[in-house]
Every structure is written in C-alpha cells, then in structure tokens.
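Hi everyone,

Forwarding the result from last night's run.
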Amino acid sequence: MSTIEQDLMLLRDEEPVSGEENVIPVVPLRGMVMFPNVVLHFDVGRRKSILALENAMCNGQMVFMTAQTDVAVNDPSSEEIYKVGIQAKVKQIIHQPSGVARALVEGIRRAEVVDFVHTRPFLKVKIRTLEEIKGADTNACRALIRRARDIFMGYLGISNKLPSNLAVGVHAIRDSGQLADFMASNIPLEAEDKQKILEELNGDFRLERFVVCLAREFDVMKIENDLAIKLRNTVDRHQKEYFLREQMKVISEELGEEDDPRLEATKFRNKIKSLKLLKANEEKLLDEVRRYSKMPSMAVESNVLRSYLDFCLSLPWNKFSKENFDLKKAEKILEKEHYGLKDVKERIFEFLSSRQLSKNIGAQILCFVGPPGVGKTSIAQSLAKALGRKYARISLGGINDESEIRGHRKTYVGAMCGRILSAIKKVGTRNPLILLDEIDKITRTYRGDPAAALLEALDPEQNKAFCDHYVDLDFDLSQVFFIATANDRSEIPRPLLDRLEVINLYSYTHEEKFSIAKRHLIPKQLKKNGLKVRNFSLEDAALRVIIDNYTREAGVRELERKIASLMRKAAKVIVSGNEKSVKINEKKILDTLGPYKFKKDDNFSAEVGVVRGLAWTAVGGETMPIEVSLMKGKGKLCVTGSLGDVMKESAKLAVSYIRSNSEKLGISDDFYNHYDIHIHAPEGAVPKDGPSAGVTMTTALVSALSSVPARQDVAMTGEITLKGRVLPIGGLKEKTMAAYRAGVKTVIIPAGNEHDLVNIDIAVKKEVNFVIAEDLDAVFKAAFANFS
C-alpha cells in the first residue's frame, strides 16, 4: 500500500468535525489565481496537494483553491496562502507514472478562510462563502462594460497566445462582475493583480480594477510587438545584405579580383565592431571603410586608406597588461637591479600602494633629472618589469619637428603616425610604461615646437582624448605610465615642466660606485666578455683606485668602460695561453690602465689669489678654481674664462664690495689706482655663468690684495650682495659631492641653504665640514687662517 493510500485511510477513520460541510482541504496554487465558473486543468506534484485532492474526491469533491503569497515556497504554511480563494469541485484526478497527478477542477464560488483545522498531512480549513454584489444597471456601468470589451478586443487582436473564440464569450456576458472574472482568468496578468480582482466583491468595482490592469498590460503588449517588428526587419535586412555580399564575393572570384576592396571592407567592418570603440571613433572608421569599399583596388588613395585602416585597427584600443601590485615583489626586482635611488623607489612604492586601494588612480607622469650615467634610463626599464607593464622608449634628443610627436595628416604622401602611438602599437597594450628620453634636448624650429605637442600627451586632464594627426581619432593615454629623463631641469620648457613630477637623481659617492661595480658592473662585463669568476678577479683595493684615480664623473659609465678594458686585456692574456686566470691588484692597475688621470687632491695647493669654488653642470657638480692676478695699472678689470654676464656682474660686485670695505679688510683704499685686476676661471673653452661664484671671486680678490693665501682644503659657493650678504644658491648636493670627490675637508655654504643639508649624502657629511655663512665676514674667517 502506498504512503498516500495509508494517509487517506487515516483520514476516513477520523471523527467528523462540526460544520463538516464547510470544512474542506486546501490546494495552494503556485503563480496562479482561480476564478468562479472557470474549469482549470493543472498538474500537481507536491505530496500534500495530491493528498488534499484525493481526500476531496472521497468526501464530496469540494476543495479550497487559493494562491500562495510566495511562489518560491515549496511547502506553504497557513501564513503563506491568501485567505480569499475559490470553493471548487474536483472533477477528475489522473495519476501519472512519474508521480505527478493531473487534476480537472471547476470553480464554484468565492470563499474565505475562517479557521485552520489541521496542517498535516495536508492543509484543511473551515471556510465561509462570500456573497457578491451584482453590478448596477446604469449608464456608467454599461460604459465601463463597453470600455472593458474594447480594450480586451484590442488586446486579443495583437496577441497570438489567446484563442479568437474568447470574443464570443465576452459579448455573451452582461454582468460586470462575471465579465471581470471571465476576462481576468484568460489574460496573463500578475498573480498579485488577479488576487486583488478576486477579493473585490462588488462587480462594478471589480471590473473597474480589471480595466486598469488590462490597459497597462495592453500598452506593454504593444511595445513588445513594436520591438518584435523592428527585430524582424533588422534580421531581414542583415540577411539581405549577407546574400548580396555572398553574390558579390562569387562574382569577384569569377572575375579573378582577389583583392576586392569590398571584401576587405567587410573584414574591416567586422573588426571595427568587435573592438567596441567609442561611438564617434567607430562611426569615423566605418565612414572610411565605406569610402574604401567604393574605390577601385588600383587607385592610389585606396592603398593610403588601406594602410590607415590597418594601422588604426592594430592599435590596442582595449588591451591591457596585467599589472603587478605586489609591493614585496616590486621591491625585490628594484633592489636586485639597482643600487641606491631611494627617492625613485619610494615614489613607485607609493604608486603601487595607492593602486591597491583604488583602481581609479591613473598612471603617473614622472621626470628623472640628473647627470649622465646615474641610471635614469635603466631604472625605467626595471620599473616596467616591477609593475608588470610593457616597456617602450622614445628618444627625444634632437627632435625639432612637431610631427614626430603628433604625426602627419594622412593626406600627405608618406604620412606616418607620431612616436607615441607608434610605441603603443609596438608594445600592443594600452597601459605600457613609455620612457621619454632626453626631454630637455628637444629644440624648437620653423617646423613647430615638439614640447608644445607633448603638453596634451603629458597632461592628465587632457590625455584621455589624445588625438594624433595621422589617426585623427581620440585615443586614451590616461593609463600610460610616462617617465621623462633630463640632465638639465632649466632646459625643460616651463609649461611642460609644470606637468611633470620631478625626481632628482644625484651623483654617486665613492662607496655607492664601489657597491654598484661589485653588484652590477663586474658581473655584467664578465658575461659580456665571456669570462668566469674563476678566470678573472678584481681586488677591492684595485677597484677603489680605479674609482678615485681613473674616473671623475657623477655616474658610472666611465667606470664601466675601465672595468671592460681590464677584462678585454685579461681575455687576451687567457686566449694567448700565457695564463689560465688573471687577478688584478693595485700594483697591476698602472701597467694595465696607464698613469693616473686624477689625484684625490687635484694638485690644488695654497696659493695667493687662488680659491676653490664649486659649480653645478648638467653632468653633476665640479670644483672650479678662481684665479686673480694684480698688475700695475689704473684699476682696469679684466674677466676671462668664457664667463657669462651674470658672472661678470659678480666680479664687479666683488671689486665694489672690497673698495667700500678696504679699511676693515686691511687693504689699501686706493688699490684701484695702482693695479689692474685680472680674474680668470680655468677651462676657458667651457662656458660658465651664474651668481654662485660671487663668494669665490671676492675671497680670491681679498687673497690677492692682502697677499694672504686661502686654505687649500676649503671650497665655497654662494651669491653676494653689494653689502656683503651671502645669498642661497641651487645644486648644493651636486656641488658638495664634487667637493667630496676632490678631497675637500671644509665647504662654505650660504645660511639660506642650511635646510638643504638634510639631502646631503651621509658619506659626504662624514668627510666634509660645513660652514654656514650669512655674510662675507663669516666666509673670510673660514677661508683665511688668521682673519679677524
């Protein structure tokens, strides 16, 4: 015996409940609402519902049909069904082999739940029938019925899901309430709307509520039909175009026209649509494709357009490299490949941290400014590797044509795109790291200003829509990480410099050069020259000799060349069979590289009229001695050494200051009546300018006029005023590095530069004593041993 049959046996044996004629089982309907006088066919799969139907068949065939409040609930409780439903009669139950029962039920009248009798094994309730209020026989009621019929007939006319014979039933019913029930049971309204119509007992109100729902459903149905018609027309048009193109393809093949522009145009169109470009860009390209498809294949302009379309479609419009946001991984890469450069690494770590917190941060635009050989270009390559981006380099040195940046109009013969989009096409991603090398060396000519062309590309507010003259489409550069390099910040045009975040890279100290050589240069040259560690060794003492006595530079390029020279000579010895391995020590350096080129003290000695100054150049700091000689004469001032106007003015200031303070300085007050003065800065072929040599010239003049030599271990820098004040200068870090390399022990700096000492390298601070000077008296006290 089945479980259902067992449950039915128990139900037959239970004692009758009072008012049994009103106590009937419940069948919850999922997503459906039943109305009176409607016959409903439906499948029943839930066990409780099958039990309820079987019980009804055994006890008067009456069942209470009501909708669930939530269709997702599989086993609704008494709180999850509507209280108003239909008292119905079960006409037939057919059990299917799958366990599903098919039921035929006829709605009798509206009823309402009074009480729940039990919930197991199925819901059983006590109900009472609801009396309906018939519609009034008034003009308003007749108008409402007519309106309902008109809307229903309109809906029936555009719907292909309802049988046409429903119109007969609609016109046969005269009562407003019955008409609302009939139409609502046949229209696919929302279950909530049908339930509200069912619960309305007044016939006129019920029909009015139904008309509102039907009108809304009618409007939705019209919109659906319009959309279906548009879709069908679009499909028909596409099919027609497809057949025509296939016919054209066959004709072209028969005629032997393999390079038919129309066939290529079809490929171009498909690729354009697959790229998902901005609407304006897509329309522009489609217009060009349309022009191309109408041109003869042998036309000159056809080849121009084909090249243009090929280039535009090969750009990475929506391709990105997968970025690395792992700080530890990036730090490991940068530390492995570059020694020092703390400011650059810190800035990259800040960028990675911000990108981890917000993906909306665009790429950065940095500018590395520093002397040659300090690693500006190589650090950019390492940054690309650390960030997981593709790398491209654009050399700007000597560029004097704006078209190099923004391209030529495609109408010109031999037109090409600019270097920026060319680099992006080459790497194949929209978020590469692009190095703009030597940005301070671009020049302005009659062909335009390349620096002005770079303004748009390097402005975060504008480069979202960068327009190359050749492509003539907006291309988004906001995700490109631009890094520019320069030797001289002052040579970068001011509007362009305003868009760059400048990071200064300074000269390397002796210890930094030593570490770089050990960690990077020697392994690199060993590999390059085919040597192994067992074949070649360079002692630390010998390496230090090379750094101090064979190179005098801000970076390490000359140092690398000297190391490479040693290895080439060692390779020659090994290949010739004289030795199996070569070891370079301090003694062998002279035999291999020749005499020392530099000495640490630079052969500078205490001499009357000679004072060591400090200068900044594009390749780092340098020491610059100033020499003063006195000759019999009438006070003529002669300045030599390729000095600029500012330095010449500093010389005049020095003379005027000494004349006005001769008594305090112990100098004859009429010296200018007896002597001509000659001021010279050695290396006359090198142009020199700037105000920072003012203190050096003044000190040299005092030394010459007082016949007292300045200390040989002192160097100085600073601008002077007519009243003897010492003003701050720039490039202090490079200048102090030059003093450190030359073995200077004391450096005199302006008081206004005292705050810059925090940026001075630790190695320099350990070896050099800094004297802060507010005026020339403080300078003289430090420069002369017995000045009072």
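The radius of gyration is 48 Å.

Cheers,
N.
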